């Protein structure tokens, strides 16, 4: 899923947070172990709202999560990218080129836009001789009114490959013991992308996958546990291709993802890596080159810490809690793992089929402070950088040694950061209202055949207010 | 007599081919690239004027009637590569030292359709890249952040 500024994308995270027990690799996951001890039909061990599903031995739970919001994007201009194949006296067609410029968005962002995110979930679980058997489905419909910029409007939604039906299945998986199959959160991503509702620069993707998690509970320290997970995941969900500089052909391999987590009552550490196959057909389509192949990859480190501030500051901070998350990710040829706006494709295919993998990183620091049992605020800062290059290709072969050839290549970098602040109040049990504000900075610079082009900078604020009801 | 007929033929050919104003392309950045390749079978009449430090024009014209005029005034280098494969072809190249240029550093990107194909023009800092492509060799994408 390509990350945009669209707020509705953020709502996927809420589904995950609303059902943390749905993540097999979350730590500590004591519910299953407790259920095993107390008996499969004692549904209280799974948490509130679980009920026995007849005499099947399953415990089940329904969930409904509704959010309505209105947001205002104050961007008048933003950096936009243009990929193109230049004609060439040497190739006929083909040398790739990437331009960047300031594009006007004033018409698209002139009015505030409303949106809705509705999620319905169902979980059923029971114990078996092979471990817990869990089935989970989270259906989601999300959309927001967007403006084309010419007074016409459309509803942007969470469809996948143009299909609302496919997009509606946010999660749908079955787990037996540590083996899990279906549409599930990627093993690469951390638990969340910052504590703000609008996303920071972090990857959190639900994807068709098969995963296996091995859990280690017998760690000497009390309450601590570790998991090691491996997964094969749908590679298409993270593809970042534009059709001109890069175009994915049919891949032969899924994405291979591995994860390890170590956690306790007040902390969680996370490390993950992924391998992503590239099989390009852009150069074949435009220039008759052979199919280019390469393997991209990504890695991430993350941690989350929980603090009870009265333990630090005494009674003056009674009732105050905080949690801090820090995450960093790097990628080469797999920009989709960074969770950043679409400023770079995964790779650039030269006219001769050579693959130049794009590189980048993203990082996020987020803190959430619980002032009272019902009032919390959050602050998130995230940043990213992407770098795209091409190989030198001849626009003209020249007439050596008298007349030199004319090569062309590009090197374009985009980096940006975002500061987000939010406050949320639970005005009634399961009814929250919140407000968030953000400010985004982005800059781009590049060089063409060694000649420096001008850097571009943009910055703009955005605000959003929301109401959320959990049933 | 023979030469006079040829010239007459060329002139009449251009009158009938384009039937429109020449496409006037101007670049005055430090480094200028103009790549002109209208699609196969598209007759064209293009004028390229470049001032700056390094000027490059590369043109491949495959129409029945092709006309290209290149005027380059570079402080360091002027480079022109022309291939014409028409019934009637006309090319004029003027190259001289640029002794009065003032660089333009305006930045921006424009993509537009012309009678001879798709014209993209990228100007940024000291770099200008201009490409005229026909229907068969125009491949352009646009991407960025959603708003």
Based on the structure, what is the oligomeric state of the protein chains?
heterodimer
Our estimate of the beta-strand percent of chain B is over 45%
The profile of the biggest β sheet of chain B is: 8 strands, mixed
Indicate the low-confidence ranges of chain A by residue numbers: 1-29
Task: Count the DSSP helices of chain B.
Answer: 1
Which secondary-structure class do the elements of chain B indicate? mainly beta
* Average pLDDT metric of chain A: 88
β-strand number of chain B: 9
| Individual helix count of chain A | 5
What would you call the shape of chain B?
Answer: flat
* Sheet with most strands: strand arrangement of chain A: 2-5-6-8-9-10-11-12-13-14-15-18-19-22-23-25
How many domains in all of chain A? 1
Can you lay out the helices and strands and say which pair or pack?
The complex is a heterodimer of chains A (471) and B (147).
Chain A: H1 11-18, H2 30-38, E1 51-52, E2 59-73, E3 77-88, E4 92-104, E5 113-128, E6 131-147, E7 153-157, H3 164-168, E8 169-176, E9 179-185, E10 206-216, E11 225-233, E12 255-264, E13 267-280, H4 282-287, E14 292-308, H5 310-313, E15 321-332, E16 347-349, E17 355-357, E18 359-370, E19 375-389, E20 393-396, E21 406-408, E22 410-428, E23 431-448, E24 451-452, E25 456-470
Antiparallel strand pairs in A: 1-2, 2-5, 2-25, 3-4, 5-6, 6-7, 6-8, 8-9, 9-10, 10-11, 11-12, 12-13, 13-14, 14-15, 15-18, 16-17, 18-19, 19-22, 20-21, 22-23, 23-24, 23-25
Chain B: H1 2-17, E1 23-27, E2 31-37, E3 44-61, E4 65-84, E5 88-97, E6 108-114, E7 117-124, E8 127-133, E9 140-144
Parallel strand pairs in B: 1-3, 2-3, 2-8, 3-4, 4-5
Antiparallel strand pairs in B: 6-7, 7-8
């Amino acid at each position: 899923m390509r990350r945009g500024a669209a707020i509705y994308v953020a709502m996927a995270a809420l589904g995950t947070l609303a059902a943390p027990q749905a993540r097999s690799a979350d730590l500590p996951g004591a519910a299953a172990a407790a259920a095993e001890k107390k008996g499969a039909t004692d549904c209280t061990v799974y948490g509130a709202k679980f009920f026995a599903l007849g005499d099947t031995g399953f415990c089940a739970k329904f969930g409904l999560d509704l959010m309505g919001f209105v947001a205002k994007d104050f961007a008048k201009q933003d950096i936009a990218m243009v990929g193109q194949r230049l004609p060439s006296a040497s190739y006929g067609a083909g040398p790739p080129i990437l331009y960047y410029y300031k594009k006007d968005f004033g018409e698209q962002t002139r009015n505030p836009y409303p949106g809705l995110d509705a999620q319905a979930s169902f979980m059923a679980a029971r114990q078996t001789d092979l471990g817990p058997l869990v089935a989970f489905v989270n259906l989601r419909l999300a959309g927001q009114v967007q403006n084309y910029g010419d007074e016409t409007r459309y509803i942007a939604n969470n469809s996948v490959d143009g299909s609302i039906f496919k997009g509606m299945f946010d999660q749908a998986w079955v787990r037996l013991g540590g083996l899990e199959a279906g549409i599930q959160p990627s093993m690469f991503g951390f638990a969340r992308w910052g504590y703000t509702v609008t996303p920071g620069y972090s990857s959190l993707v639900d994807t068709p996958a098969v995963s296996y998690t091995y859990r280690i509970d017998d760690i000497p320290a009390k309450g601590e546990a570790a998991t090691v997970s491996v997964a094969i995941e749908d590679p298409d969900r993270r593809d970042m291709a534009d059709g001109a500089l890069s175009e994915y052909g049919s891949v032969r391999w899924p994405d291979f993802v591995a994860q390890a987590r170590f956690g306790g009552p007040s902390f969680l550490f996370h490390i993950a890596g992924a391998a992503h196959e590239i099989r390009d057909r852009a150069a074949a389509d435009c220039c008759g080159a052979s199919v280019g192949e390469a393997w991209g990859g990504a890695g991430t480190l993350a941690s989350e810490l929980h603090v009870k501030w009265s333990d630090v500051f005494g009674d003056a901070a009674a009732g105050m809690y905080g949690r801090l998350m820090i995450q960093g990710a790097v990628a080469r040829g797999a920009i989709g793992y960074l969770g950043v706006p679409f400023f770079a494709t995964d790779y650039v295919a030269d006219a001769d089929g050579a693959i130049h993998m794009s590189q980048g990183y993203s990082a996020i620091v987020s803190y959430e402070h619980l002032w009272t049992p019902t009032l919390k605020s959050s602050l998130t800062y995230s940043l990213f950088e992407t770098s795209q290059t091409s190989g030198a290709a001849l626009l003209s072969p020249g007439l050596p040694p008298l007349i030199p050839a004319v090569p062309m290549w590009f090197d374009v970098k985009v980096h940006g950061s975002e500061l987000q602040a939010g406050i949320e109040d639970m005005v009634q049990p399961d009814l929250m209202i919140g407000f968030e504000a953000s400010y985004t900075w982005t800059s781009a610079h590049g060089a063409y055949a060694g000649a420096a082009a001008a850097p571009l900078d943009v910055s703009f604020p955005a605000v959003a207010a929301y109401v959320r009801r959990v049933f | 007599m023979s030469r006079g007929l040829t010239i007459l033929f060329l002139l009449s050919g251009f009158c009938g081919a384009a039937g429109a104003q020449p496409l006037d392309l101007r670049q005055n950045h430090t480094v200028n690239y103009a790549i002109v390749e209208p699609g196969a079978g598209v007759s064209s009449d293009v004028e390229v004027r470049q001032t700056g430090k390094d000027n490059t024009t590369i043109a491949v014209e495959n129409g029945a009637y092709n006309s290209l005029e290149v005027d380059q005034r570079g402080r360091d280098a002027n480079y022109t590569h022309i291939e014409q494969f028409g019934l009637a072809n006309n090319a004029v190249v003027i190259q001289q030292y640029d002794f009065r240029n003032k660089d333009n550093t305006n930045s921006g990107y424009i993509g537009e359709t012309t009678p001879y194909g798709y014209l993209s023009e990228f100007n940024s800092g000291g770099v200008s890249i201009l490409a005229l492509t026909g229907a068969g060799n125009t491949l352009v994408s646009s991407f960025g952040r959603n708003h």
